[in-house]
Each structure stands twice: as structure tokens, then as C-alpha cells.
Amino acid sequence: SDIEYQSYFPTTTKKSSDEVEIELIDKFLTDYFNLNPKINLRGCYDRWSMADKHFAKIACQFKGIRILRQDPVENLFCFICSTNNNITRISQMIEKLCNRYGNLIYTLNGHEYYDFPTLDKLASSNVESELRQLGFGYRAKYITQTAKYLTENYSDGEKWLSSLRNVDYNEAHSALLKLSG
């Protein structure tokens, strides 16, 4: 309830009603920030504090910490890019990935914003060599192999990744281990 946000929409999108738009934004933000009122945040803090001594020391200073529910496809490829990397470089790589293969969604103050690429775009030919030229190194191979695996083995790879939210940890872990990187 203490979160403030601002949303920007593509100028090419025809908006239906303001009410529908606000409902969609609310639904997205509730899911993304894990704001479901059924979540026992106190219980989460207790579990996290038991697992992490540093968190236990600082938890009282940060009320409302949540585990984000990032889009599973974006999360997967961000994780692949994170191998042996720092936050600044990971952010740069993801921005390059979006700028090169994502769709332009908005321009604000002269800065263009791109959506995260689809699995089909990441599975396209020449992506690995282009990513290597963009500085992705060995991760380029993992990105293309994972995208190809998902597009070739599932009718909807995005839906399959999302479905892993609803299975137990061991099943999700085993499924994700089949992916490169």
C-alpha cells in the first residue's frame, strides 16, 4: 500500500477505458511485487532471517521487502547473463539484448525503451554470433541453446516456464537443469 509507481504506455496502443487500464496495471503490479494479501510477510521474514544472518540484522529497517515475480522468460535469461558477472555488466547485457531483439515500446525524453525479446527471436539463426559481437562471450551459446530448446520442445515455452511456479521445488529444479547455462 506504500508503493508509488508511474506507468508509460506505447503511443501506438489504443486505450480502452481508464478503468480497465487501471485494473490491468493493478493486477500486473500486485503479481510483480508479490502483494497478494494472502502472503504471510511476517512468516517470510522469519524464514529469511533464519536462513540469512545478515537479513536478520537489517530486517527491522526494511518493512515490506518482497521477492519479485519477474517474468519467467526475462528472469531465466537474466540469470544466464549473471554467470561470473557484476550487476552493472548484467544490466548492460540485458539492455543490449532488448535493444537488439526486443520491440520498441516507448520513447521518453529521447530515450527508447524496448520490450524483452521473445523466445522465437532469441532462437533465430545468427543470434549467437551477434551476441558474441555484443560482448556476451560464452553466454551467447547458452542463450541461443536455451531459447531453441524451449521453442522446439514446448508449444508455448513461456507458458511452460510460468507453469513451473505451480510445481514443487524439486520438480522445477529438475526441469530447469535441462536448460543450457
From TrEMBL:
**Superkingdom of origin organism:** Eukaryota
Q: What is this protein called?
A: 2468_t:CDS:1
Species for this entry: Racocetra persica
